[in-house]
Amino acid sequence: MANSRQFFATFLLVLTIIDASSGFDYNEALDKSLLFFEAQRSGKLPWNQRVKWRGDSGLHDGYQQNVNLVGGYYDAGDHVKFGLPMAYSVTMLSWGAIEYGRSMMDLNQMGHVLNAIKWGTDYFIKAHPQPNVLWGQVGDGDSDHYCWERAEDMSTPRTGYKLDTEHPGSDLAGETAAAMAAAAIAFRPYNSSNSDLLLVHAKQLFWFADRFRGLFTDSIPSAKEFYTSSGYSDELLWAATWLYRATKDASYLKYVVDNAASMGGTGWAVKEFSWDNKYAGVQILLSKVLMDGDGGSYTSTLKQYQAKADYFACACHQKNDGYNAPLTPGGLLYLHEWNNMQYAASAAFLLTVYSDYLSAAKSVLKCPDAVVQPQELLVFAKSQADYILGKNPKSMSYMVGYGETYPIHVHHRGASIAPISVLHSTVGCVQGFDAWYRRPQANPNVIHGGLVGGPDKNDNFDDDRSNYEQTEPTMSGTAPLVGLFSKLHSMNAGYAAGPTRTKGLPSSYSHPKAAPKPYEKPGLPVEFFHTITNSWTVGRIAYYRHKVTIKNRSEKPITDLKLEIENLSGALWGLSPTHNKNIYELPEWTKVIKPGSECSFVYVQGGPQAKISVQSYL
User: Fold this and answer.
1) Residues 347, 325 contacting (CB under 8 angstroms)
2) DSSP 3-state percent helix, strand, coil across the chain (nearest 5)
3) DSSP secondary-structure letter at 327?
4) What pLDDT, in 10s, does the model give residues 496-512?
5) Which of 198-202, 525-529, 568-572 has the highest mean pLDDT?
6) Where is the active site (predicted)?
7) What is the per-residue pLDDT for 524?
8) Mean pLDDT for the chain?
9) How distant, in Å, are the alpha carbons of 12, 158, 365, 366, 498 from that of 315?
10) pLDDT of residue 8
């Protein structure tokens, strides 16, 4: 009877979470988050660029040093390409795709997510031309901040700064290795050759980071004022952990165990997870290894890692015997005065992932003040997401472009100046301050999906362009939201967003070429399995060969099945078109799908996959 009551209580809690989710459209929030990455692109923009007020920029980056550093991302409201937050953001995007790919597929967003990841990794490949060389920055923060101009009009120096054996940067090289390894996992079900290439770079960068140790800000001093690194030990553990997950090579697991104490992995108990501090991420990833039963002889050390993971989760959840992460009166995690919202976003994503890991292991979080169910962590993570989207004392969305009220004086050069399509003349370096920076009107361009710095410790917010601590958006703030919103959407949709766990393989997929099931809807007699079996590039366009398998999961034969296929731009084989637009039926030779049987069709197109649904059946 006690077990029944416990199950019923848990069931009610899950229902409460799902019902409460309906207040916000996480699908819309996810879509806008991905638009932000398009707004931050540097280089030659692609044909399918959706943010139209942006244009090509930084087309000669690196040429002064005879290296091609065109591409990548601007990190915030300026035009410097800082390597550390860029790499961290790519790691977060990739982790979100690994954990919540099914939800992304269901929302037809996986193509945009992979494009956002690849825009970063393509740049990292250029920036890593030799095993022991990594170009870690383009542009100078001081000269860049002297100007207020569009990226398309940049007149500031575009100097490149590199790391090598004489000028090491273990933190930056380690984070870039982690980004490449995580991206390799994310791409493996869709583009195995790209995945393999990313792993080559990840392994080389980790070896470089570990063999030649030092802080990147000692080698690139101009970054210190903007992204001061507190150390590199966490990035080395972080990179090794991601390489273990990507390769299952036990030498990487041995590395994090052998260096657990000396590098602080089992010593540091933290309340922050960010572009600078990766310890909590390492500890939670290694807790999964332990809970999956893969610890072996390393079990005792992995338990020490999990103890520190529990500390982080308990501190955020306010159950840590007084040693809790600070909250504003409105309930927002508050760790830093400058751009605090990014820390709340990162923590919310990490708690969501840990909740899923604990649930999969049928485990709980044992805090000093209480035993916490995994779903309770998810409730707390959701509270942070909802605060961001408008459930806060100001009733303001701190994600630009979402909701009815959001910041309109965002500290962002490109968003605050009329686009080239409207204002054809160049906006000069200093001219931009007088003509655009100081103007009281709202920004002419909405930088959708940008997560601004957010309110102060008392939930107060001043929407002023000069208030960069609160109104500047960052990549490292928005990146964790992609996975978080995907998970929260899946709660509304009524399925578990997490990956299928398969022994011996990275947990992002159950077969080397199998993608998660994106189209299954409750009550339908069929389910669809979507696989990308090949990809290639013609000119600037990447094409994918999609195979969709239709399985009859009912106990009755299915006849006269008609499918609606939207957003199809390429050729299709294995279905017959009908007289109705976008409606297809099974071919003559496959008019009946017997119980438990399946058939398939194939289509080829560039860009995101088509949306497939059942129109009718008998």
Assistant:
1) yes
2) 45, 15, 45
3) B
4) 555 433 222 222 222 23
5) 198-202
6) 411
7) 73
8) 88
9) 25, 42, 12, 12, 24
10) 35
Strand stretches in 502-597, DSSP E: 526-538, 541-552, 558-559, 562-566, 572-573, 576-577, 583-585, 592-593
Distance CA 401, CA 384 (A): 18
Check pLDDT > 80 for residue 341.
Answer: yes
Cβ-based neighbours of 228, under 8 Å, separated by 6 or more: 217, 276
From the list 112, 128, 411, 489, the catalytic residue is 411
Token pair 């930056």 is found at 172
Residues in the chain: 618
C-alpha to C-alpha distance for 540 and 122, rounded to whole angstroms? 14
**Helix runs in 77-191, H state only:** 83-106, 110-127, 141-145, 170-187
336 is catalytic: no
Res. 98 pLDDT band, cuts 50 70 90 = very high
* Residue 269: C-alpha distances to residues 25, 224, 313, 323, 484 (Å): 35, 25, 10, 10, 24
Structure tokens at 236: 């080395």
Cβ atoms of 47 and 382 within 8 Å: the answer is no
Tally of CB atoms within 10 A around 250: 13
Q: Is the pLDDT of residue 18 over 60?
A: no
What distance in Å separates the CA atoms of residue 224 and residue 169, rounded to the nearest whole number?
Answer: 12
On the question of pLDDT at 22 being above 80, the answer is no
d(CA 73, CA 81): 6
Indicate the residue type of 21: S
Where would I find the H helices in 337-412?
Answer: 341-360, 374-389
Contact 228, 83 (CB under 8 A): no
Yes or no: say if 188 and 532 are a contact pair by the CB < 8 Å rule.
Answer: no
Q: Are 486 and 577 in contact (CB under 8 A)?
A: no
Q: At how many degrees (to 10) do helices 170-187 and 110-127 cross?
A: 140
Residue 366 scores a pLDDT above 60? yes
**pLDDT tens digits, residue range 124-153?**
999 999 999 999 999 988 888 889 999 999
Name residues whose C-beta falls within 8 Å of residue 271's C-beta, 6 or more positions apart in sequence.
Answer: 312, 315, 316, 324, 325, 335
What span, in angstroms and rounded, lies between the C-alpha atoms of 379 and 26?
15
Classify burial at 66, counting beta carbons within 10 Å of its beta carbon; exposed 0-12, middle 13-18, buried 19 or more.
exposed
Position 142 scores a pLDDT of 85
